């Protein structure tokens, strides 16, 4: 592609235009579209709206497993035999203690997720009380992800001070029945529409690598644009043993970057978050994802571990970014280094080669 191709996609995105289908396809699958100029073109947009800040999110899995739904990618679903620690709702004391740790770790937004199709009235009231207490105790934003909600519940949560409601669409309307049979794309979309109507910011995530087509990826990014979704966590399917969908399809580190760039061009002002699977699917290109994306999850995901804090914070610092927090990135790193002293020594100390390293052939022959 010529330099003008990359310049045009940046300009169109910055001036509020929507890229046409052919350009979106070229971003995702044309070998003529080179990855470095593409990432740079996406970075221009990220820089304009988000500067060099990274918002760090930590998830609290309030209630794990025991779900009536059959989402094929989810270890908590009734169709999964993944070995997970199932438990009912955590106590208030436990959740507040975890919120304190998240705040002290530089978290910008604290995400409380609970399994299940839709919360009971009692569950919603519990969330209302938690939101009020957390917001009173710590200057952090709060997001909840309790499933399908009606208008009344959404209004209660908003009045309690909720900053964002999460409800993931995960895949396109066309592909949805391939990943779940117990509810529909429309069920999920309705919750997002009601929340938007109530004036609440919404967060809605996607999962790639489930067999969706390039058109499904483009359609999803366009659906979010139409809805005005404030935040988009981009997940890449984790190969969890026991799940129906356990073999990620067509994901390479470069393709993951292309997806993140496409989401940035089509949703220029949205917070785009590198979510589950960043470590295993972006691999050595992980830091490059911070150029289109401006947010990430730290401390792992719902049931799976991720990079440790030092690795995550250091990646942000090494790539020249900073964190959006009252805490300073350098101070947090120092704190984490001292808490994980053995890791820092092992990771940054110069280790000398041994005689065996220097004479590998000699070892074999002797
Ligand atoms: S994604 Fe949510 S609704 Fe679907 S199975 Fe998992 S916990 Fe249940």
Which helices and strands occur, and which strands form pairs?
Elements lengths: L2 H12 L6 H9 L5 H16 L2 E11 L28 H13 L4 E6 L6 H17 L3 E5 L5 H9 L4 E3 L18 H13 L3 E3 L2 E3 L5 H14 L3 E6 L16 H14 L4 E4 L3 H5 L12 E4 L10 H10 L3 E2 L5 H11 L1 H8 L6 H4 L1 H6 L1
Parallel strand pairs: 1-2, 1-9, 1-10, 2-3, 3-4, 4-5, 6-7, 7-8, 8-9
Bound molecules: iron/sulfur cluster (SF4).
The site of iron/sulfur cluster has 9 residues, from loops.
Q: Please, could you describe this protein's structure?
A:
The protein is built from 15 helices and ten strands. By secondary structure, it is an alpha/beta fold. The protein has one domain (about 5-350): Alpha-Beta Barrel (TIM Barrel), CATH 3.20.20.70. Strands 1, 2, 3, 4, 5, 6, 7, 8, 9 and 10 form a ten-stranded parallel β-sheet that branches. Helix 5 links the parallel strand 2 and strand 3 (about 140-145). Helix 11 (about 310-320) runs antiparallel to helix 12 (about 330-340). The model has no long low-confidence stretch (mean pLDDT about 95). Iron/sulfur cluster binds near residues 67, 74, 77 and 147.
């Amino acid at each position: 592609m010529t330099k003008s191709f990359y310049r045009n996609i940046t300009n169109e995105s910055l001036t509020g235009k929507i890229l046409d289908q052919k350009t979106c396809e070229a971003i995702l699958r044309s070998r003529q579209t080179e990855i470095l100029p593409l990432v740079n073109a996406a970075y221009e947009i990220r820089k304009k709206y988000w500067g060099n800040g990274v918002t760090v999110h930590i998830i609290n899995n309030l209630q794990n497993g025991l779900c009536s739904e059959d989402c094929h990618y989810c270890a908590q679903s009734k169709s999964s035999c993944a070995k997970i620690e199932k438990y009912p709702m955590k106590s208030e004391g436990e959740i507040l203690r975890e919120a304190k740790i998240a705040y002290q770790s530089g978290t910008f937004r604290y995400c409380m997720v609970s399994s299940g199709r839709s919360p009971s009235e009692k569950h919603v009231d519990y969330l209302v009380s938690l939101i009020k207490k957390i917001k009173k105790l710590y200057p952090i934003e709060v997001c909840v992800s309790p499933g399908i909600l009606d208008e009344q519940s959404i209004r209660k949560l908003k009045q309690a001070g909720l900053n964002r409601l999460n409800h993931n669409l995960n895949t396109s309307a066309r592909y949805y029945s391939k990943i779940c049979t117990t509810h529909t794309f429309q069920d999920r979309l309705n919750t997002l529409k009601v929340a938007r109507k109530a004036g609440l910011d919404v967060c809605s995530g996607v999962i790639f690598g489930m067999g969706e087509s390039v058109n499904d990826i483009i359609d999803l990014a366009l659906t979010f644009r139409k809805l005005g979704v404030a935040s988009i966590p981009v997940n890449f399917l984790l190969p969890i043993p026991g799940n129906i969908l356990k073999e990620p399809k067509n994901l390479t580190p470069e393709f993951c970057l292309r997806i993140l760039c496409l989401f940035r061009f089509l949703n220029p002002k949205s917070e785009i978050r590198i979510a589950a699977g960043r470590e295993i699917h972006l691999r050595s290109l992980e830091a490059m994802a911070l150029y289109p994306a401006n947010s990430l999850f730290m401390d792992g995901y719902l049931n799976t571990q991720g990079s440790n804090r030092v690795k995550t914070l250091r990646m942000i610092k090494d790539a020249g970014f900073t964190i959006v927090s009252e805490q300073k990135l350098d101070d947090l790193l120092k704190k984490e280094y001292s808490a994980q002293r053995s890791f820092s020594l092992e990771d940054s100390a110069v280790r000398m080669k041994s005689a065996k390293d220097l004479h590998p052939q000699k070892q074999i022959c002797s």
